[in-house]
């Protein structure tokens, strides 16, 4: 389930968007403004952001600029009442990927979200292909010409997340929040333990490797073999 962050100060619209996105199978996080959004991103990873422009404390333009300056690369869909070309031009120049003008059609929003995720190489089929092996999200399995492994759910989700964003560093806190949830009582050693198990299971595979970034967390690199 891919997490999406909805940044919108209108509570009714925010909840409507949340409901429709959850119906489409997405996990939804919420923020009322750009400052709240940045705080959420300190602890959690998201695959896509839907953001309003006109918000208190930090508006959508400032949020996008801050994210791109900090090298966040997730797709961003702007949803706003501002329909002038100048505003659209500013949004795209700062780094937004798509634009919708209020009042929005919720079904169209879902289509645009799916298209943006496809462009970000997160496929609707929930599969990652590396060389000749395939990570199948729906079956929690990794298979290829000489390989078939069914992983425990947490191990698979951890590996899938890392390989969805090769070379991107994830902190242990981000991985804990994404894989185990915010209310979990596990500690960072659980993440380390799962990484150790994954490395042991795939130590002889040439397609990818998991790298420890000392003091930060982990990243995965595709090698292909």
Q: State the secondary-structure class.
A: alpha/beta
Q: How does the major sheet shape up?
A: 5 strands, parallel
Secondary-structure element string: EHEHEHEHEHEEEEHEHHEE
Tell me the radius of gyration.
18 Å
| SS element count, helices | 8
Low-confidence stretches: none
Shape: elongated
Task: Give the strand tally.
Answer: 12
Oligomer: single chain
What percent of residues adopt helix (DSSP H or I)? 40-55%
Strand arrangement, largest sheet? 2-1-3-4-5
Distance between the termini: 29 Å
Q: Give the mean pLDDT.
A: 88
Strand content: 15-25%
3D architecture notes:
There is one protein chain. This protein has 225 residues and is α/β, with parallel strands linked by helices. It is built from eight helices and twelve strands. The strands form three sheets. A five-stranded parallel beta sheet has the order 2-1-3-4-5, sandwiched between helices. A hairpin with a 2-residue loop joins strand 6 and strand 7 (133-136). Helix 2 (34-43) packs parallel to helix 3 and helix 6 crosses helix 8. The longest helix is centred in the middle third of the chain and has 14 residues, at 106-119. The mean pLDDT is 88.
